[in-house]
Every structure is written in C-alpha cells, then in structure tokens.
Amino acid sequence: MTPLLEVTGLRVSYAQATALHGIDLQLAGNDALAILGTNGAGKSSLLKAIAGLVPSNAETLSFNGTPLINLPAHARAQRGIGYVPEGRRLFPGLTVRENLEAAIRRPHRERARTIEQTYDVFPQLAARDKEPAWRLSGGQQQMVAVGRALALQPKLLLMDEPTLGLAPVVIGELLEALQTIRRTTPVAMLLVEQNVGFASALCSDGLILRRGLVAARGPVDELTQGQVD
Amino acid sequence: MQNWRTNAHRLILPGAALALAGYGIFFASPYDTRILTIAGVYALLVLGYQFIFGHAGALSLAQGTFFGLGAFVTGILATRFGLEFHATFPLSILIPAALAALVATAVLRLESHYLALATLALSQSVLLLAINWESVTGGANGLPGIPGVSILGWNLPRGTPLLVFVWIWVAIGAVLAHRIVAGAYGLAFRTVRLAPMAAAAAIGIDASALRLAAFVLSAAYAGAAGALYAHTLTVISPEVLGFGIMIVCLTMTVIGGRWSIPGAICAALLLTHLPEWFRGLQEYYLAANGVVLLLAVIFAPAGFLVFLQRRPDSAPRPPGVSNAAIPQMLPPKTELTVAALSKSFGGLRALDGANLTLAPGTITGLIGPNGSGKTTLVNLLTGLEQPDGGNARLGTIQLTGQPSFRIARAGIARTFQTPDLPAGVTVRDTVAAAIEPAHIGLWQDMLATNPTASLRQRRTRADTILQDFGLAGLDDQLCDALPHGRRRMLEVARAAAGNPAFLILDEPTAGFTQAETTSFGEKLQQLAASGCGILLIDHDPDFVAGISSTLVCLDGGTVIASGAPADVLQQPAVRRAYFGAFHESAA
Amino acid sequence: MLLAQLSLNALALGSSYALIALGFVLVLNATGAVNFAQGDAVMAGGFIAIAAASFFPEAFNTYGIVMLPIVLVGTGLLGLALSAVAYLPLRRHPPVTVFVSTIAVGIILTNSFNALFGAAPRATPPLLGGGQTVLGNLSLSQQSLAVIATAAALIAGLGFLLHATQLGRRLRATAQDPEIARALGINVTRMICLSFILGTALAGTAGLLLANQFFLTPNDGGVLMLKAYIAVAIGGWGSLRGAAAGAMFIAFFEVFVATWLSHPVAEAGLYLALFAVLLLRPQGLYGEAVQRRA
Question: Per-residue b/e over B6-40, b at no fewer than 16 CB within 10 Å?
Fold first, then answer.
C-alpha cells in the first residue's frame, strides 16, 4: 500500500542557509510521527516545506498519490494538509467562530455542523464563540489553531510546537483532546515538539533531526534516552 | 569581460560628452540650446535626488518642492529686489536646505510610504502658499521678467553662454557628489541602506545623521537647479512647485539608476529630449513617462542605464597589503553589568529583572527555552529596544537609554539570528565599513584631497581582519554570494573589526554543520583570549558548555542558574526549563 | 439653518471621502502597500461617468444613478488591471517599490485623462435630480441626500460582505495573516486582486458622487489620495471604521473652516493635522483595534 505521505531527498534553502539537506520520510494514514531535535535542526522548515510555505525541492514529495512539489500552499491545504503554525497565529481580529469558518470549504449548512464538532472536542471554545481571537488565553488559542486546521477535514495534520508557552495543566488538556482526535478521526499527524513527554504520549514513533538531516528514527521512548540532551 | 566593460565605459562616456558639448556649443539651434540647458537643470536636480532616494533609500516626494522653492527665491529676489546672481544663487540653495533641515526631525524618522506621504503633504502646503500669497509670488499668474544671470554687474548672455554656465554647475555638482559618495562616507550610506540593524548595533554608524545630511544635500541641489531654471525660463508660476517636476525627477532617477552619476546625467538628457523626438506623443508625453517608470520599476529596478554604472566595489585591489603597522588596540578591561533589567510586551513580561555580570576576555554562554527572554536581553543591551526598568553598564559607562550606535561605539558589538549583511557589497567593504565609524564624515570626504584614500586604507585593514578570520581570498566576493557558514563568520569578523570590549552572538551556529560549529568555537576561544568578552547564545547545550567559562540559564525572563557549565546543566531547575516538564516526569 | 445646510454638505462630502479611504484601507490591509493611484481611481470613476453619459439617450443621461453600475464595473476592472501590473509582479519587493509603481499608474491615468478630456473642470449629472427638498423651513439639496444614501448603501454592502459572508471572512483572514491564510486553503492572490477591485470601485463611485458638485479636473487625484491617507492616519492605520470616521472628520473640518475662513486655510489645516499625527504618534499610526496577547 502506498504511504499517505512520501518524502525523499527533501531540501530547503533560504537565501542565506540550507535548512534541510535531504530528508527522507514516509507516513502511513492514521500514523503519528514526532519530529524531535534542537532549535535550528530544521524541524519547522520540514513542516513548512510540506505545507508549501517555503520553496523546496525533492526527489519525491507526494501526498495521497499526488505530487505536491509544484502545488501552491492553498492547493495543498485543499487536498487535505492541515497546518498548525508555531505560535498559534490566529487571525486576531476574527472571532473564534470566524477563525474556524474561514478554513471550512463546505456549503453553509455543513459549516455549522463542523463547528459543532470542533466545540465537542474543545468544549471551552463554545463559550467564547463570538470573542475576537486575540482575547483568548494561550491554551484556548492553541485549541482554535488545532480546530481551525481540523476544520479543513485534513488527512494529515502538521503541528509545530503546540505546547510552546503553555502551562503544564493546559498541556495536559491539549494532549487529551489530541488523543481523542487520534481515536475518533482518521487523520495522520506530524508533530514537531521539544517537549518529548508530550511527543511520546501522542506518537509512538519519532525521528530526530540534527542540522538538517535525519539523525535517527524509532520509537520515541528509545530515541529520547540519550539523544535529545 | 569585466575589463572590456570598464575600458569601453572609460572611452564611451568622455567621447560622448565631448561630442555632445561640441554639438551644443557650435551647432545647436537656439531651441535645441534651450532644451540642452533645461536638461542640465534636471541633471542637477536628479544628482541631488540621488542622495535621499538613492543613497539614503528614502522616497521623498519633496524634491520638486525644493526645486520650485529655489526657483521662487531667485525669481522674487531678482524681480522685486533687483539682487544679482551672487546673492540670489546662494540663498536659493540655503533656503530649501534650511526648510529640509527644519522638517527633517518630523519627517525622516518615518519609514517608506509614511515618509513619502509626509513629504507630499509638505509639497502641497508649499504649493498652496505659493498660489495664495499673491503679493509675493504673483499667485497663479506667476512671476514674469526674471533677468538672466548677472554677477557684479556683468551680464551673462542667454543662449550658448547660459548653456555652458548651467553645465559648469552640473559638473561642479557631479564632482561634489562623486567626492561625497566615492569614499568611506558613501560606504556608510550603503551599509545603512542594506543592513540597517547591523549598521547601528554591530558597527555604530549614526544612521539619522546620514539621512539628515542626504535630505539637506538633496534640497540644496534642488534649490540650485531651481535657481538656474528660473534664469533659463525667465518666468515662473506655481507650476514649478507642482507634482509634475517631481514625477519627471523620479522617472529620471529610476531610469538612470539611483546611484549612478553618469546615469543621472544621461537620463536627464534623454528624458528632456524624448518629447522632442516623439512629437506624435505630445499629449501623452507625461503618460508615456508613467509607462516608462512602471516598466523600469518592474524590469530594471536598478535603472535602464545601469551599464553606465561602475560596479560600486570593483575598485582595484589596494596595493601593498601588509600586516605591519596595524595598531592592535586592546579593548578596555571592564565588566559588563546588567542589573534588574525588565521589559514587557503588552501583558507579557519578556524579561523580568535579569541580573548578569560578564567578565572581560571570557566566554559566557546563555541558554534557555524559547521565549525565555534571550533575544530580548540582547536587544536591550544593544539599544534596539528600551527597557522598562533596570540598567546595563560597561564599566562606568551607562548603556541604558543610549541609541544603538553609541552603545556600539562604546564597545558592544553584536551579530543577529539572521545575519544582517549588506547584499551587493563586497566582503572586504563590509568589514571596511566597520573600522572606526566615528571617523567617517561628510566634510572629511568632501574636503579631502583624495576621498578614496581613506577608504583604501580601511580596505587594507579589512583584508588583514579577513585573513585573521579565515576569510582571506573571498575579499572581492559579494556578501550574498557567500555560503551560510562564511556569512556567519563574516558577521563576527565585522563585529570584531571595531575592537569591541564585548561581542554578543545571537544563535551564531544555527544552520551550521558539526564541523563548522567546531571550528567556529575555536575561533571564538581565540577571540576571547585576545581580550574580547563574549556573550554566546546558542541552543546546542553541548557546544555552549564546551567553550564557555560561565553558563547562564534564563527562564521566564529571569536568571535561574549561573556558574560553571557542568554544574548549571545538572541543576534540576535548568533541566526542567530546558528539557521540558514532561521529560522530567518521563525520565 | 446655515448649520444644518453645512452639516448636510459635510456629510455628503464625508461619505464620498469615506468611500475613497475605505478602498485605500482594503488594499493596504491586503497587501501592506500604499496605493498611490487611489486618487486617480476617483478621477477614473468621474470620467467614466462623463464618457458614459454621452452614449445614453437624453432621457437618461441627466440621472447619474444610471451610470453607477457602469462606473462600478469600469473601475473594478481598472482595479484588477492595477493589481496585475503594479502589485503582483512586485509582491516580493519592499512595499516602497509598489508605492513607486502605483505612482507610475497614477501618472498614466492622470495624463491620459488630460489628453482625452482636457484639463478643464468637468461635472457629472446629479444622481437623481438637482432640485431641493423642502422640509419645514429647511431646504435640502436632493443631490446631497442622494450622495449620502448611495455611499451609505455601498458602505453597508461592504460591511455585509466583510462580516457576513465566507468571502469576506477570507478577505479579512488574508489581510491579517496571508501566510496562514494560504496554509488554510485560501487563494491569497485571488483575495488580493479582489481587494484591489473593491478598493478601486469604491473610489470610482466616489468620483461619480463628487463630480456633480465639485467638478473634476484630471489633476485632482493627488489631493484626494492625500486626503484619504490623512483620514486613514487619523482613524488608526488599517482600521476600516477609523478610516470612515477620519473621512467624516476631514469633511466637516474642511466645510466649516472653508466657510468661516477660506478654502486654502482649511486645506493647509489638514496638512498640519497630518504633520501633528505623524509627530505625536509616529508609531501609533498602526491600528489599535487588535492587540497582542501572550
């Protein structure tokens, strides 16, 4: 069976630096893979390259059987790649509901149903439906960011450091919600995380990036025994 | 190729100039003479505009206004007070320059289109004044009967003599402009324009002084051009203050290249003659100007006449590169003290009373999770942001509250997470700009016997520094052509060129390979051994701990641990902050 | 009495200015670039109406309202062309480059109008009629009332589009964070073109509304663009509501100062106001409607 996401020889170069020197990775539908490594290892660049937000080249970059390399970011999103950016990046002046609605690509009536589903996963958000996004706490913003990406009904969810700047209690809530999503929704996940505890709780497998290359791949618990620190 | 171009350029320009001069003086009809005279006026105007729009990189829309002002000063003084050229001309230069200096404080700290619109409002105000102050300006009818040039009772005839006279001023303006931008002062302009953050915080160039000088110079040139225009036309109306002249000036500058002196002159000649050559276009002449401007912006942002422009840094390799006679100035042995430094952004306390002391000649490592306040600390130390509380001192010098460039001159240099290097400038000149920035000035270069001599000296010293940092042989490459690792090294070399007491490096090894990281670390240790204190921020704890003598860990904006690297890394608080709460419980 | 008349005039002028300023902010928010050709888009609207009037049978060409759809479509297309030649090729360049390119388009428009229509002032027909409506002892200009109603309808329509439709949400999302909008499947290029179309069409309508009472010459674009900018600067950079409020402020200032002192004094006062804003709030020009939170 072909994997959902297949990447070989992925390179990303910015004007001044090469962030990725040739990455290979495969991800099956429903799989969750953690990407670990220190800052500057190229983790965010990997997600952005898959989402189409930075120019990249690769021998293979295919999603669900379609080559992605020449598709613009919005076309990749429409084919089922949801992206949760580092630092949440909600549309600050839009309300919580509008943030979710903006991402939904379905007729008016079904939009309301998708939002109901999101509020089922993140009950806290229902009460803040009409509030502008910038007024939410960090944890709630992160929930909107995840919900917004899920509103696309993606087959693959890319998450860039969702725990960054969140209190431990909130991280726990977020983890629970994401585990629920893993159980109930057919979606694969690629999770960039420095918090290895969080990563191992959500993903069984992981890979370690070091200076733009895959340094190791395997079960998260084994990887983190001595590699990250 | 390069040679051919340089040689051709050397022959073509003087040849064409000579031919044109011969034609203008001996063969031109009175009408052609007039057009050529006006071309000279525009050339002077554009040469001036290059200071603010080209060298300072600020889109001022007041150049036409300074021009009109110069024309009106000459017109009013000559027709109403009967003053002669030797009195009206200096005043036509001084008054626009004074107006520029007056509004500069309000206008020049604005960026891009804010500046453009503020200068546009200025020109509209002046235009309004000229139309409505009829008793002085003649209102919408204008001022007729402006006499020709007369100096101490001697009248310069119109026609060819006036043509020659105007072009003499163009020549003077061009020579002056060349002297101003050909040396170290011009290099300072390039550095500020292309790497503004580094210019202030890594080198110590006073960018606002440069912008002010450029604005006043551009107004002075415009005033001179306006005065000559009034003498040529003999009648002026508020139209000289309108947007039309500004449009022509902008188009000429974009087409001729924003930094090229021959380009400015050629564009002025070309665009004043275009309507003559394309008479069919007459009604649409200005519209065609717009089309040309649009095409130039899209397809040739450096100007259509860019081939006339000498590559700014293609100067021959300075002779006699020697390692001797370079005074090794030892930085002062003082501590850098940070006391209770705090900074909030909105509701977030990015830095919450950080205390820190850096010893001279040692490497201090600074680690901490994302958002712990590391970069905020660096920005506060180097004056890019102002703290809410606390202070930083270098020995007895108070750093807090000083502008960035003064802190850099006091001896604190830095690098950036994303290297801030001037694209299109050579490696050698990047470093040359950082040598003794306090000694670079307008008057030094304008009055020097040879303005490029001091630049050549700087280049020689830059070569030595580059050699020291393992960048020898790359001197003539452009910054943006360097591979990433070299760029980082160049940034450090530039910061070190000013002999700083302390060097602050913000994640210098991001994007490095393991081998690059190792050799970079060795270089830092050498630097520290030579007396320069280093504050090193990095995410690779092994690397930082390996070369630092002190390790400091920031979390939540405060210092949570500080001491010998091995001890600091073992502290539970550090492990929790740096490797995450979950890791602690999982491990 | 006089006060009521003047207020009505100012309200009509202000609603036209508001259309220009709103269009300006739409493009500013979508692209981060200042559209210098916004004033010339106003002229384009006026001249399209004048040109169209000559093609209509006489029974209709005394009603400006008939020209409104033509002006909307014509200047909308102009906005599309503007985005195609002056913005899209330059989107990776610094914003000031777009400023120069829109100056270039402005020059082309101004001088083409000059060549086509001449520099003499021209007027468009009144929207419905040039008469007066008597209300008690007040005599109100029907044109002013119609201008206010038309502008109000367009502004309400814009508000509906932005806040109650999926397209509007996407326009706003694009304006607030284009990169993330792309990542969420929004075609950002299309949204930017649409912003230019809307922004230019609003300005064009203002041209139709203004040109009856004030007459237009091809060279008025720069001043109108400057007024839109001042309105936006006063109202908080980037805020739609602020831009409309700023436009009203300018119109009232202009009408009342011009009546009591003189028109040049009113105009000079506006420029001084701009300098004051720039001096006192050099950073505060950015809209404060949205704040950051940790």
Answer: eeeeeeeeeeeeeebeeebeeebeeeebbbbbbbb
- B290-302 pLDDT, tens digit per residue, is 888 888 888 877 6
Q: What sign results for the dihedral spanned by CA atoms B428, B432, B434, B440?
A: negative
Find where tokens 């010293």 sit. Answer: B461
CA distance B272 to C176: 45
Q: What is the 3-state secondary structure (H, E, C) of B1-16?
A: CHHHHHHHHHHHHHHH
Nearest to C172 among A51, A53, A91 (CB): A91
DSSP B361: T
Q: Residue A196 is nearest to which of B370, B419, B586, comparing CB atoms? A: B586
Interchain proximity C184–A102, CB inside 8 Å: yes
Residues 127-156 of B with CB under 8 A from C: 128-129, 131-132
- For residue C103, name the pLDDT band (cuts at 50, 70, 90): confident
CA distances from B143 to B77, B139, B229, B246 (A): 11, 8, 13, 21
Write out the two tokens for B70.
Answer: 């110069």
pLDDT of residue B515: 77
Report phi then psi at B373, rounded to 5. 110, 15
Greatest mean pLDDT range, A211-225, B336-350, B425-439? B425-439
- The average pLDDT across B232-254 equals 87
**Domain boundaries, given as residue ranges, for chain C:** 2-219
Residue pair A208/A228 in contact (Cβ under 8 Å)? The answer is yes
- Chain A residues with CB inside 8 Å of C293's CB? 134-136, 138
Closest to B263 measured CA to CA, from B452, B54, B112: B54
Write the pLDDT tens digit of every residue in B396-429. 888 888 888 999 988 899 998 878 888 888 999 9
Q: Which amino acid is at A206?
A: G
* Confidence label for C196 from pLDDT (cuts 50, 70 and 90): very high
Beta bridge partners, B344, equal B349
Q: Which residues of A82-95 are buried (b: 16+ CB within 10 A; e: fewer)?
A: bbbbbebbbbbbbb
Q: What CA–CA distance (Å, rounded) separates A177 from A140?
A: 12
The pLDDT-based confidence of B2 (bands split at 50, 70, 90) is very low
Instruction: Identify the pLDDT of residue C194.
Output: 95
Q: Name chain A's partners: 3 or more CB pairs within 8 A.
A: B, C
pLDDT digits (tens, 9 = 90+) for C268-289: 888 888 877 777 765 444 444 3
| C 33-72 residues with CB < 8 A to A | none
Q: What is d(CA B139, CA B135) in angstroms, rounded to the nearest whole number?
A: 7
All domains of chain B, ordered by start, with CATH? 2-308 (1.10.3470), 336-411+500-586 (3.40.50.300), 427-493 (no CATH)
Structure tokens at B179: 């002297």
Can you list the alpha helix ranges (DSSP code H) found in B500-540? 514-529
pLDDT digits (tens, 9 = 90+) for C16-48: 999 999 999 999 888 888 888 999 999 999 999
Cα–Cα distance, A189 to A5 (Å, whole number): 11
- For residue B462, which of B481, B476, B452 has the smallest C-alpha distance? B476
Calculate the alpha carbon distances from B337 to B352, B356, B381, B407, B524 in Å.
16, 6, 10, 14, 21
Contact B489, B469 (CB under 8 A): yes
Q: What's the pLDDT tens digit per position in B504-520?
A: 998 888 767 677 788 88
